[in-house]
Amino acid sequence: MPRLPALIRDYADRAVPDRLRSARSVRIRQVGEMLLKPGASPRRFEATEEFATRRVAFAWRARFPLLGPLALHVTDRYDGEDGLLEVRLLGIPVQRRRGPELARGEAVRYLAEIAWAPQTILANPQLDWRELGERRVEVATRVRGERIAVRLIFNEAGEIARTEAERPRAEAENAVTPWIGTFGDYRYFDGARLPTHGEVAWQLPDGPDALAVAELERAVLAEGGVVLSYGQFYGPGTYNADAVPAEPHVQIDRAAERTVQLLDSPSGVVVITD
């Protein structure tokens, strides 16, 4: 096994008791909601997910209720070489995806969800670790010779609080898109410390919200105003209170100071980052 950065080693030591470290797989149950496409209402689901701990492989099987006993059954899995995304209705496949882009995306998912199967940190020889700085670690693996990586960001308690990656998005012709996850509310389950809440989302550049912002910016500039564009905020009172997000970013106090300084600036667009 490669040497682990101290940050991730300490996390695994706290999260996994000795008697659970030999497990070959981890299975969890999930209840949640998912947006199947932008602008749609979220759909409730129940799922089980099983992670292999000694190789990069997982299987996610979910049920999305539709009406009465009618439901969509979704399988999302990666077997170490190939990925599969399949949707069935009444036992009939209505959607099925495979291919190299999907395989890369599934490997990203495995790495990003490592907080739910911390045994993999200690047992999986296919993982490569690199310390990026204070509270930041990169975990990587290879898919058909290509290096796939996810950044893990830790909070002050030493828990994985956020994941950052670039993942092919099938709905956008496999355009590589930022994919962000957040984890929290850690609790003990049979001695293992796991997050009980998690969210993942694509960071999309377009859509109704982005178009509205663009129109507002045009209106401000037309009136001789100043458009201020900020990096991701971090610091006390922000969403990233306990970790520095990926660039571009700006500390909240610095952002406030620069905003005041720019109130009387000539018309134009100013980007505020560290």
Describe this structure in words.
By secondary structure, the protein is α+β, with helices and mostly antiparallel strands. The protein contains five helices and 16 strands. The strands form four sheets. It has a six-stranded antiparallel beta sheet. A six-stranded antiparallel beta sheet has the order 7-8-9-10-11-12. A hairpin with a 5-residue loop joins β9 and β10 (160-169). The longest helix has 15 residues, at 208-222. The radius of gyration is 21 Å and the shape is globular.
Question: What's a concise summary of this model?
Answer:
With 274 residues, this protein is of the alpha+beta class.
Layout of helices and strands, plus pairs?
Blueprint: H1 6-15, E1 25-34, E2 43-52, E3 58-67, E4 70-78, E5 83-89, E6 92-97, H2 100-112, H3 119-123, E7 128-133, E8 136-143, E9 146-154, E10 160-169, E11 175-189, E12 192-202, H4 208-222, E13 226-230, E14 232-234, E15 249-251, H5 252-261, E16 268-272
